[in-house]
Amino acid sequence: MKEKNKIPTVFKEDLKKLLQSINEMEPIENGERLCKICSKVISLENIQLIIPRQHNTFDFICDSPVCLEEYNRKKEIKK
Amino acid sequence: MNKLVELILIYIPISVLLVLAGVFLGGEVWAKGKVVLGDILNFFGWVGSSVRKLSVKSEYEGTINSIIQDYNKNFENPILPNCKIEWVTPENQKNILSEGEAIICLSFDKKDHNLNFYNATLNFVQTGLIAKAKDYLNKSSSKAIDLLTTHIILRNNRKEVLTTFRKKLTEFDDETRMEFETLVPTHDKGLFLNILLPEFHFYGELIDTLPPSSEYNTEANGLFHWFKELATREFDEKTNLKFISKNLKVGVILVGKDETWETQGAAAYTKWADYYATENYNSVYVLARGDIGYERATTVTKILTHSKGFDQINKNPKIKCVSAEGQEYIVTCYSLRPNKATIAYLAWEKFKEHYANGNLVPAIIDSVQKETIVINAFGLRFELPINLLSDIEISDARKVFKVEDELYLTIAEFDSDRQHIVLSNKGTVSDPKHFIEAVLNANKVYTCKVERVQVDKQGLQSGLKVSTPELKHWIYIPKFKATPSRFLDLTTKFPAGAEVRVIIDNYSSFSSNFVGYLENLTDPWESSTFKKLQPHDILNVTVKQINEFSVICEIEEGLECRFSRQEISWKSEECNTSKFKVDDKIKVIVIAIDTDKKRIDVSIKRLSKTPELEYFDANKNKVVEVEIAKIVPEKGLAVKYPGSTNTGFIHWFEIGHGSVGRFENIYKQGDKIKAVVSEFDSEKNSLKFSIKRQFTHQFDEWAAAIDDNSPLKGKVIGYFENAAHIELTQNGFTVQGFILRKYVSNYAFVESEDLPFYLPIGDSFHFYIFEINEDRKTISLARTEYLEQSGKPNYGEKIKVKYVKENHSKGYFYSDELEGWTSLPEKDIKLGSTIEVIPISHSTGEYKIV
Questions:
Q1: Is residue B5 part of a domain?
Q2: Could you list the residue range(s) of the whole structural domain that residue B689 is in?
Q3: ipTM of the complex model
């Protein structure tokens, strides 16, 4: 338990670069990405979680704490 | 000057850099330092992106880790994990990103800093803290735990983010918010971090080693709800202090009441720890409130850790809390874990010590069967057979003892080497005989609740079972002590839950029950209703029992009356009891009340009167003149009475008090005689008369008052066939007797027609009692003995006597004191006339008329 939980984090100022590197910048700017939970359009402003999926695809969660809770909960249940 | 400027330009940045380096290094080991570093770097954010990034990292890690470090310090082994931010950049993303593992955004920009910070904290709490157990909780409970934990972290170090927390809380569903609101007070009382989080942590670690099962959902939610009830209880409110499930058992010891501490000391609490240890509880918490509570809880914990084999899990049990009114107070929470091997060793040491000192062993009942109970003492379990439970006989231990009852036992046998011990409750302070005696002597009225109506094997109601919070066992009230009525359906008057006031009467060791009666139970035969009751009263009654020949009704609860079949109608064909149903309401008239026999006779048909009944009601027990209409041989006399065409009857045994003889020879048709109106035969609608009842016959009182060896004086009243009717009065009591004619004289054979001369009506004579028949209440008299004993006159002395009988050779005289015979007189002497005689021979009884 003494081990630290490593939390993959992106600094908001580095977000654009990261999204560009994973080819998600354009879809987001085009409003093509939706929150996995509430289906809100994901933007650079409201993005909270980026979840890598198979085949270089990504899910996104908006900055609503309710969506965050819901996502984590579903993730735990899937587990 | 230039040198000075040069020095300043060199040393100031170096100093700043050194300070920053110191804070940074300090922050690595001291989390709070990171918060400070984050704040300082926030000020220097303008310097560049790296400073801003470091500021955000320091703030986040510092905020979370500072509280986690504080928390973990309280435990031997850390419970919650620290966190470390790992920045994802385009350069390292291929190494860091893994499928399904979310990347969280953190911002330095004030615009979204707080929301991002809040989300990141919530995310850490949700994914990093007690995650293994939380999965099994209900959604709202799990979310509420996350929200409260997040709130605690933010409140500690990032109060400005709490505004965001409050705003965003409204976005959660109602159920989650309500759960959160109910959970907040548990933290205010210091128990959320000290009981719930550790328990869920340990539970998560435990079930992580077990195969998946849906039962974990039940367990986790059960633990959560039990905790909420415990932590939100008011002072002195009853709470379940134990959580028991398949994989988890948590026990709490509340060191609360002054009274308990003062009377029983620490033992009142340590015995519960023993119990929890025996029952394999995973955790035991010792809780207290206030400074005194802290001292006492500490004393208890010291005993448990030093001498009872418990390990203390948390290091800082003292929690500062603030009430809703802003008042600070201390909550003490010791987290303990029983160590089985140590407990067993210490228990036998304790037994040895108690045995040597003759001390009582405190124990708690673990389970109760009919003939045995299992107790635990000092953390070990023992069985006590029923014969060692009390000095009094107990037939069923389940009725006297309950699980978790506290006992103080003597050690009857002990061998520490063989680990052999026999414990006994006989004669100890916890022997139920004391309790039973105390209850019986209390003479107290208990307010009880009806639990159920007791039914016997035949399905008949036998009584009530009632309970009172003052006694741990139900009280049995036999039906006759709950109601005076034989017919009452107890379920209607005493439904389950009804309140009754009960006085305990005795204890039945046969059934191991207290037996009581209702306080307001009254004897209906003492009631005002009964006392006011008079013959001829008309009542509305309820039919309760229908027999072939009679019907029993109730006037009021328990006050019974009855009528025979013939009292239903004047028409015999209508006299059928089957026409009634139980609980019919009917009108009746009272015809007789027997207080001694508690019997009330009623009638329906007499509600309407016949001329015979009218006559009876008007003349009952009065002496009237009747005319003999017919003599019915061997049975009696049919008589006519005034105002009726019907006849009444005098049964032969109602003629006289004694040997009447053949009444056919005494009476003849047309004779007018006096008789008492004695009975009404409702079946035949006819009257019965009695001749003898016109004469006073105080047999029992008279018989008790007289000397039956002495002569008694009596008056001649009349004659039967072969006897005279004599009325005796002694000591103020009057009775009716008789003398057979053969006991009238020693000289003559007295015929029936002689009796009026020997014993004339109205004259008084002396008699001896010949025989008293107690059963028939008859008194048989004799004069022969009296006359023999009476003094004889002197020769030549003239005596006045009555000339009473004459035959072909002799004449006979008679008086109270003297009798004899003479030669036939030369001239006729009327029988019954007075003559004078002188004695001739005392031995032969011969006299001479002068």
A1: no
A2: 611-694
A3: 0.90
